[in-house]
Amino acid sequence: MHPSALVVADDLTGATDTGHEFAARGLRTLVSTFDASTTDAGSQTDVRVVDTDSRYADPTDAAVRVERVISDGDAGFVYKKVDSTLRGNLVAEVDAAVNATGADVALVAPASPRNGRTTVEGYHLVDGVPVSETDAGNDPDKPVETSHLPTRFAPSSFPVVRLPVNRVAAGAAAVAADLEATAAEGRTVVVADASNERHLDAVASGGARADCSVVYVGSAGLARYVETPPPAADGPPSVPGRERSVLCVVGSTNPATVEQIRALPDASVVSLDVETAVESPATASDDAAADCEARLKRSGLAALVSAPDPDAPNRAAEAGRRLGLDGAEVRARVGEALAGTVERLWRGGESEDDGGGNAADGSSPESLFVTGGAVAADVFDALDARGVLLTGESVEEGIPLGRVAGGVADGTPVVTKAGAFGSSGAIRKCAARLGGRDDFE
């Protein structure tokens, strides 16, 4: 049996928070990396979520990855996940999804009101602020230069039409009628206003009712409402509450994550030496692994942090300049050091899992938290993991719980978090859920 649904995402944390919306309905949902072998796991899942790791790729390469993932499968339902702050290769990837599916309409609604993302009169906002004026507008690799959704999609090879809020608010029938009329004129990208959950429900339901083929494009918000076939697999796995050691890997420099670090117990924080990481990732990994191991043995909680203070990115950048490295190369080396630390901790204490997500001899970390999409991908690669099986449980909105699928950490409970998501105590809450420890809260 092939998966009944396919979700194509451009980064790992986005893949997991969107996949959660399907797992929460009782669908067995596997989030996998682009190059991972998912043949065996995929045959036992209802929804396959693939991270193409293409947010910062060359647009042509990003499009090829999307087309390959869709063309390689025969899913009856395709959902193109995009960033809720409009980062990445949106146009190239959406055009690729339309071409690969042959859909009449790409129905685009990146809003996620529960996370403060709304689209009003065509303008995309984060907590009421135009997205180009937020951190996404200062993205070091691909800054979001416009908040106007139709303008963002203007380079598309297909005509772009806006579905205004008055039509969305009129309900699913009105949305379906507009989509049918638009499709009659030819293949089109339709960008929808949505400022609340009812709007997203209407968009999703209208797409399902429309007498034309639709490929949905959105963040986790729209995924909550799209219709999928009923579950056919055994359902999501579970993570029973019990005491475990917890390794947190914090690779995001988003201000929300920096605030969350401050809520962690000081004794648990291991600051990665970013200058050493840029100069010699392996040396930085060795040092950080020793520090993490000591904290795990002492208290059961270690939080490896790449930006413990606001100046850390500047120190890393300066170290890179001394070596003639650009910003992308610097970030890659820091990510390598973080992933290398995780690899050392697991492979140094590699042992057979006892079925409950912990090593039988207790030498490896018993659970894992990761924030930052690129870092999460590096970490899973270092562990030879093919992905995450989601439980359908979330610690907070957009922060899902799952189990590592495959590799040396197979079965390990894991939480992934996008850098911008979560309350000020989110990381600490995740540690408490994973570790079964009230004193972590």
From TrEMBL:
Q: Does the keyword Transmembrane helix apply?
A: no
Q: Does the keyword Protease apply?
A: no
| GO molecular-function term, one example from the UniProt record | kinase activity
Looking up InterPro entries in the UniProt record yields: 4-carb_acid_sugar_kinase_N, 4-carb_acid_sugar_kinase_N_sf, NBD_C, NBD_C_sf
Which superkingdom is the protein from? Archaea
Q: Which residues belong to any copy of the Four-carbon acid sugar kinase nucleotide binding domain?
A: 247-425
Q: Write down the Gene3D superfamilies for this protein, in alphabetical order.
A: Four-carbon acid sugar kinase, nucleotide binding domain, Putative sugar-binding, N-terminal domain
Q: Where is this region: Disordered?
A: 345-365
Report keywords, A-Z.
Answer: ATP-binding, Carbohydrate metabolism, Kinase, Nucleotide-binding, Transferase
- The chain's coiled-coil residues are none
Question: SUPFAM superfamilies from the xrefs?
Answer: YgbK-like (SSF142764)
Four-carbon acid sugar kinase N-terminal domain spans which residues? 6-225
The text of the family note is: Belongs to the four-carbon acid sugar kinase family.
The protein here is known as Uncharacterized conserved protein YgbK, DUF1537 family
What organism does the record attribute this protein to? Halopelagius inordinatus
